[in-house]
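Structure in, sequence out. Go:
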């Protein structure tokens, strides 16, 4: 057993030095049927548009989806078994025939948790590498091994995912009922929640530039499901990309202000604490993209980039004690790299099915680590 453990650890270390070499064949054709939502900033023929982003209120006027109408998520049943040489018996990707987590012995759980911690440490080292397709592939391989060693029984938990078109799954595949298959489906594939709800909507943002229906800060009550145990909120890219004459960034130090992007973030946190104190909430930072907004603001003379928007999200989330799933600072799926973008997105922004898969596996791995390790 000791020898096998040493071999396993060596295999994990080797993973950080070698890529799997696999690439999915991804179409660069976007199938988005919306007509110019704030985060659909590319032409539907796959060619990048040079036109500045229009404000979401004038180009996207669909109503938000009430919590009662959130799409229930079924698994995609498309995971592939993946192995690292030397770890075949303990790190295969989940399958329907695998021993249920609820049946693991305490010894098995302890061994898995130890391996998960080692895998997480190896993955942390990868974050320092230059951003590239190979880097994301390496991270994804470790994500799958972390998931294969999950020790938490998510079948006792209900989860809701709230976000924009990325959460909705615009440009992804569709299931038999015509619903988009997004990263949410892949999270559920691995963690198998008791109830998994997708409340993503194209054009949604924290701020109110697109009107109340798409402003998370103003319509949270219509989107949030009170019965969920876990909420995963993936928003912010539309706040950055939308252009309006009255666009405001806000002041981090004006703690009572709800103006602008920063104020909207603060107001969201206030509502979460007041109305949903028993839900564990995870915010997700956006992966990097090439598109820039170059907006003009009424309250500042500079034009913050996506990095500044994600940094402000990070600060406000940390100030309020909520969990953060970090994509931007880790370089995961950084689409400023052309090879990464063409492999994982349909249009440089929205994930293709390959992108939804690795994104779902990464978010699932983060949830597995948090719940498994805190047991």
């Amino acid at each position: 057993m000791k020898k096998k453990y040493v071999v396993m650890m060596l295999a994990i270390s080797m993973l950080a030095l070698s890529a799997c070499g696999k690439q999915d064949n991804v179409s660069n054709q976007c199938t988005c049927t919306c007509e110019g939502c704030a985060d659909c900033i590319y032409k539907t023929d796959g060619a990048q548009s040079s036109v500045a982003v229009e404000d979401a209120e004038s180009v996207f006027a669909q109503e938000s989806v009430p919590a009662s109408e959130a799409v229930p998520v079924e698994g995609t049943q498309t995971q592939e078994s993946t192995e690292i040489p030397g770890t075949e018996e303990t790190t295969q990707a989940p399958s329907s025939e695998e021993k249920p987590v609820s049946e693991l012995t305490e010894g098995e759980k302890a061994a898995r948790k130890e391996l998960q911690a080692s895998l997480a440490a190896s993955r942390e080292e990868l974050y320092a590498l230059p951003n590239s397709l190979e880097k994301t592939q390496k991270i994804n391989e470790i994500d799958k091994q972390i998931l294969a060693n999950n020790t938490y029984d998510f079948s006792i938990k209900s989860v809701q995912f709230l976000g924009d078109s990325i959460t909705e799954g615009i440009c992804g595949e569709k299931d038999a009922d015509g619903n988009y298959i997004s990263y949410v489906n892949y999270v559920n594939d691995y963690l198998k929640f008791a109830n998994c709800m997708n409340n993503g909507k194209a054009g949604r943002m924290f701020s109110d530039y697109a009107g109340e229906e798409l402003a998370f800060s103003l319509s949270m009550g219509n989107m949030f499901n009170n019965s969920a145990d876990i909420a995963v909120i993936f928003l912010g890219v539309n706040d950055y990309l939308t252009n309006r004459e009255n666009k405001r960034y806000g002041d981090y130090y004006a703690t009572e202000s709800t103006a602008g992007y920063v104020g909207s973030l603060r107001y969201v946190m206030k509502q979460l604490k007041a109305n949903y104190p028993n839900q564990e909430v995870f915010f997700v930072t956006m992966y990097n993209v090439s598109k820039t907004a170059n907006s003009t603001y009424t309250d500042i003379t500079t034009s913050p980039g996506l990095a500044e928007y994600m940094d402000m999200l990070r600060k406000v989330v940390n100030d309020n004690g909520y969990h953060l799933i970090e994509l931007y600072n880790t370089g995961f799926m950084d689409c400023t790299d052309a090879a990464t973008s063409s492999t994982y997105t349909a249009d440089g922004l929205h994930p293709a099915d390959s992108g939804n898969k690795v994104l779902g596996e990464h978010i699932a791995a983060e949830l597995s680590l948090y719940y498994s390790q805190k047991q």
